[in-house]
Design goal:
The chain is α/β, with parallel strands linked by helices. Helix content is 27%, strand content 28%. It has 2 domains: 6-71 and 184-342, 3-Layer(aba) Sandwich (Aminopeptidase); 74-169, Beta Barrel (Elongation Factor Tu (Ef-tu), domain 3). 47% of the residues are buried.
């Protein structure tokens, strides 16, 4: 049967979390996706800049279903005089959501060094009162302290660390009572859901109502993940997180259908199709609007000039771009709506 395979989804999610993939750092996770989709019985194709597209079968009016592989993170901006690292964000990562986090620094020659994102000064007990309450600022008072005995910029450079090196945050996955807590639920949890969709199609020899392409994009967090599409695509459906909040309908156990984000409304007719599908299939869903700071890869496709309809769905997720939380039911309902829409 075309069931939700919870064990496969969680195992896949954990495997994806085990591969650091700050936007631009795509090669290792792309290779993992290629190997896994081949193992599932498909023939993946890669894009030149980084990304994997897989034909799932079906005929006529191709639909792309996309989920992104890249994570927000940091980049070395410069090396400070004391050997610590001044960093800048890659994607929408803010100091208050990463100070105290353990990180891995990737050098150009393939070395990996661990460290911690710290305030400067970094000890409350020896910090003046006015400095305790100031917000963190990557340019002024936040740095990475390496787990190495460095005291000067020259010490750090001798390790091979330099401006432009990528810095990945520890995801810290845990699961309790169905609640999934981790960095990068956005969007590796949705990638795992899309892989489960592919697994069900192949294992059950399912016929699709139209041609469907799975698109694992690598640049969503900086706005150009799906700015290339194969010829003939008419619709794109993004699987992405639905941020929760006091003004939001989204909830961690449900799948959200996105009506609008900070750029513009999603295609009205395609959104209605998803809503009708959810109602007819008895799927637990809500409609939601995400402003003022949200967008998906479908937006990038429309802005790139493609003549496509675009829409988005995803699991309710709290603490977006921080230490995120969702529930296995949210992933299950996202899977169910995706399957019902393509079958």
């Amino acid at each position: 049967m075309k069931h939700f395979d919870e064990s496969y989804v969680i195992d896949s999610f954990r495997s994806l979390l085990g591969i650091d993939s700050t936007t631009g750092q795509f090669r290792e996770i792309q290779d993992w996706i290629i190997a896994e989709t081949r193992r599932l019985g498909f023939q993946p194709q890669v894009t030149h800049k980084g990304g994997v597209i897989v034909d799932l079968g079906g005929e006529g009016d191709p639909l792309v279903v996309t989920a992104h592989l890249d994570d927000i993170g940091l980049m070395v901006r410069k090396i400070n005089a004391d050997g610590t690292l001044n960093v800048c964000n890659v994607g929408g990562l803010y100091p208050f959501y990463c100070v105290g986090e353990n990180v891995r620094v990737y050098t150009a020659d393939g070395e990996i060094y661990t460290g911690t994102v710290c305030r400067t000064p970094n000890s409350v007990h020896v910090t003046e009162e006015e400095l305790r309450v100031t917000m963190g600022d990557f340019r002024k008072n936040v740095c990475i302290v390496l787990d190495m005995p460095v005291r000067t910029a020259e010490d750090t450079r001798r390790l091979g660390i330099e401006t432009g090196d990528m810095v990945a945050l520890d995801p810290r996955f845990t699961m309790s009572n169905g609640y999934i807590k981790s960095r990068f639920v956005d969007d590796k949890a949705c990638v795992a859901v899309l892989l489960n969709v592919m697994k069900s199609i192949r294992e059950n020899n399912l016929s699709l109502r139209r041609k469907v392409l799975a698109y694992f994009a690598c640049y969503e967090e900086i706005g150009h993940g799906t700015t290339y599409l194969p010829d003939g695509v008419t619709d794109i459906l993004s699987l992405d997180i639905a941020p929760t909040g006091p003004d939001q309908n989204s909830e961690e156990h449900l799948v959200s259908i996105f009506a609008k984000d900070s750029r513009f409304p999603y295609h009205y007719e395609m959104t209605r199709e998803l809503r009708k599908t959810a109602k007819e299939a008895g799927i637990s869903y809500v409609m939601d609007v995400f402003t003022p700071h949200y967008g998906t890869d479908g937006d990038a496709t429309v802005l790139a000039g493609y003549d496509v309809r675009h829409s988005a769905i995803g699991p309710g997720t709290s603490n977006s771009h921080g230490y995120e939380r969702t529930h296995i039911d949210g992933l299950r309902n996202t899977y169910a709506l995706t399957m019902a829409y393509i079958l």
